[in-house]
Every structure is written in structure tokens, then in C-alpha cells.
Amino acid sequence: MTDTKVYLLDGGTLVIDGFHAFWNRGPAGEVRFPCYSVVIEHKDGRYMFDTGYDFDHVMRVLPFEKPIQDESQKIPGQLAKIGLKPGDINYVINSHYHFDHCGGNKHLHNACTICHAKELEQSANCQPFEHLGYSDLTFSPEIMKAKGVELPPDPVLDVYTPKFETLSGDQEIAKGLWLFETPGHTAGHYSLMVELKNRRPMLFTADACYSQKNMDMMCISSFHLDPTASLNSMKRLKALAEKYDAELFYSHDLESFKTYQTGANYYS
Ligand SMILES: [Zn+2]
């Protein structure tokens, strides 16, 4: 039996204002932050947790987030760095369907897509203030079609007909792979914990906590469906980290990201 391995794949960076990153606290000013994907080589298959943003989408819809992403930071380029092709991924897990977490789904044409049932529902029927978050619907051609969204012909999107498997509650989806409900940022947000043989478990907060500074200040981001639930989810992550002696890996923290092992350097 092969041991589980975890790879972190660098998907480039974006910019938001400090008052968005630290809601009602700031300070104002540009905060540049990383977006990354997690690949888990597990005996039951290859899983990918979140797929980053699509550069063309951000340039078209949110150019003020100033994306920096080179060719090697797109999903096919990222996977090539660890010797894989997009078709090698068996399962995609999306923490939630904001554009910076699902932009690469369309490349993963062989994968079954796993998400929280409430998230799939909300992404198709979001609140007006969630519109930009849920602006990249290419993860579900079906929702795109239902909403009448038309895009220029795209050879990648043309072959993409994902199969969804929706979950609710906390779930151990494969041995040592845990999804924990952490709602608030969005309706059906999941964080992921991976248990490994040779080190402490890795707990990927996703957007339930952007950074160490958010955690230290107990300060949520300004992007949320329910701020109180969002804060409770941050508290939950802290409690989970203590309970499992897990290390927290934040979703959008440039300082922390510099200390993470990326590319071909895996955790096991
Ligand atoms: Zn995000």
C-alpha cells in the first residue's frame, strides 16, 4: 500500500483591498495573496482540492484583482510539474464555488466533482452581493446554460460534462481524508483535513480563514453570506486543529505560503 502524498500547486496571485481581507479592520491598501490547489495521491485515487482561478475570466470580469499567473501556473502546467495530466485526476473537491477556487475544474474532464449540497444549490441561486464571487460558472455547464451565460467557444469547456457528488455534514470521504463543514463565507463551505503517516495532519482552511493574521485577530473577510457563521467556522477550525494536533494551512496568506512546500516537493 502506498502512503498518502500531498502536493501544493501554485496557481498565481490576486489582489484585494485590506478592508476586504480584514473586514471592518483593514488597514486599506492592496493585499496580494496566493491561490493554490492541493493534490492528494491516495490509495483510492487522485484527489484535487480546489482548482484556483482562470486568468482570462479574472481579466474579463474582475481585472481590478490584478491577476499574476504564468502558463506554468495554469492547471495543466501545475500538474505537469508533478508528472500528471489533467485526465489523471479522479476526484475534484471544491471547498466552495467562488471563482478563485473552481476556475480550473473545466480542465479536469475525467474527475467526479465533490462538494457540499448547499454550495451547488447556492452557486446557481446566489444573493446579489455574492454575484462576483460566483461569477465563474464554468465548473457547471448546466448552471451556465440555465442562467443563459454565453462564452466564446472553448475547446476545453466543450469536452467538459462533470458528474457531481454532493455531500452534507462532516465526512471521511476516504481513509484519512476529512471534510469538515465550515459555512459562513459561503452556504456550503468545506475545509479539508489530510492525515499522513510521517507528520501532523494538514488542515486546509480554504476561505473559512484566509490567513494566520485573520486567525490571530479573529477577523473574517468581508466576503460572506453569514458573518456570525463565518466567525464560528474560524473558531471551529482552531478547535479542530487542537483536537487533531493538525497544522493549519491558510488559503490566501502570502507570508505562510512562502513557507509551504510546493510543486514536486510533497508532504507525506
Ligand atoms: Zn478564495
Automatic annotation (TrEMBL):
Keywords: Hydrolase, Metal-binding, Zinc. The lineage of its organism: Bacteria, Pseudomonadati, Pseudomonadota, Alphaproteobacteria, Rhodospirillales. This is 4-pyridoxolactonase. The keyword Protein transport does not apply. InterPro entries: MBL_superfamily_lactonases, Metallo-B-lactamas, RibonucZ/Hydroxyglut_hydro. The keyword GTP-binding does not apply. It comes from Dongia mobilis. SMART domains: Lactamase_B. CDD domains: AHL_lactonase_MBL-fold. Pfam families: Lactamase_B. GO terms for molecular function: hydrolase activity; metal ion binding. Its cofactor is Zn(2+). Residues 34-252 form the Metallo-beta-lactamase domain. Belongs to the metallo-beta-lactamase superfamily. Gene3D superfamilies: Ribonuclease Z/Hydroxyacylglutathione hydrolase-like.
